[in-house]
From TrEMBL:
GO molecular function: DNA-binding transcription factor activity; sequence-specific DNA binding
Protein's name according to its UniProt entry: LysR family transcriptional regulator
Keywords: DNA-binding, Transcription, Transcription regulation
Lineage: Bacteria, Pseudomonadati, Pseudomonadota, Alphaproteobacteria, Rhodobacterales
HTH lysR-type domain location: 1-58
Entries under InterPro entries matching the protein: LysR-type_TF_proteobact-type, LysR_HTH_N, LysR_subst-bd, WH-like_DNA-bd_sf, WH_DNA-bd_sf
Family membership: Belongs to the LysR transcriptional regulatory family.
Pfam families linked to this entry: HTH_1, LysR_substrate
Length: 295
């Protein structure tokens, strides 16, 4: 059994199939399938149950998985120790809600990439929770801590949200006199049945039951507000990127939420630990900088 075969095993286990694993391995699916068959033959055990829906780990495969992951971590740590320049390399994928992915991660990751030019950083922006258990990403930023012990979470940073509208909309419709007035106002928000985390249900606290202008994406909501479509709850850190929007009732409508940094539980390679430290520091600094711009 060699590392190259274990690498193929890990990719197929994480993608739950040959087609999903092949691009990351830079192999065609047929070659990946032959490598899995070779590994199974050398071990004398069937590692995957094959079906039209994909590849599922058997009991033997589940027993091999933590050993393969430990070998992966040890190899990465050895390569990191041998890097005389101390630069990070390889590929790291971050999953994040689209507000964070659009308005925070580009600046943070650009700064990290400038210092570590051999590192490939991938930002997976999704209007849902990134599934680390299925290896969609190496780490994730979420708005709630996960409930499973298979993942590890740490509090990353609080962030603020405010009510905002375009100056044009306010000139035409006037400024609401109190939070109670939002019940009858033209609101912008999430598509109600696509709110994937209770922490994102901002409008429920104000008794708003109808959202006439809605999107599952924060960036679309922000642009709807800029276009004069109504009032929206927006991230303070996004306001510097949205000229023409102003905060409304800033002393009365002020929400605070928390970003969590989520990783796989258990041993982690030194390279990912170093990247996580840089990400943590960069995120906290960038949130503080942007929020200071809007007061």
């Amino acid at each position: 059994m060699n590392w190259d075969d274990l690498r193929v095993f890990l990719a197929v286990a994480r993608a739950e199939g040959l087609s999903g694993a092949a691009p990351r391995l830079r192999l065609d699916p047929a070659t990946a399938g032959r490598r899995i068959a070779r590994l199974e033959q050398s071990l004398g055990a069937v590692l995957f149950a094959r079906s039209p829906q994909g590849y599922t780990l058997t009991e033997a495969g589940q027993r091999l998985l933590p050993r393969a992951e430990a070998a992966e971590a040890a190899l990465a740590e050895g390569l990191e120790a041998g890097d005389g320049a101390g630069r990070l390399s390889g590929t790291i994928r971050i999953g994040a809600p689209d507000g964070c992915a659009n308005y925070l991660l580009p600046q943070v990751c650009a700064a990290i990439g400038a210092v570590h030019p051999d590192l490939d950083i991938q930002i997976l922006a999704l209007p849902r929770v990134v599934n680390l258990s299925r290896r969609e990403a190496d780490l994730a930023i979420t708005v709630s801590a996960p409930a499973t012990q298979r993942l590890s979470a740490e509090r990353l940073s609080d962030y603020r949200l405010s009510l905002a509208a375009s100056t044009d909309w306010l000139a035409r419709h006037g400024t609401p006199e109190s939070p109670e007035a939002l019940k009858g106002a033209r609101m912008i928000g999430y598509i109600p049945d696509m709110i994937f985390d209770a922490e994102l249900d901002y409008l429920a606290a104000f008794g708003v039951t109808r959202v006439p202008m809605a999107s599952n994406a924060v960036s679309v909501q922000l642009n709807l507000a800029r276009a004069g479509a109504g009032l929206a709850i927006v991230h303070d850190f996004a306001l510097p990127a949205a000229p023409g929007l102003v905060r409304v009732l800033p002393d009365q409508v002020r929400l605070t939420r928390t970003f969590w940094l989520v990783t796989h539980a258990g041993p982690r390679d030194a390279r990912l630990d170093r990247f996580t430290t840089l990400l943590r520091e960069g995120m906290r600094t960038e949130i503080a900088r942007l929020e200071a711009l809007v007061g």
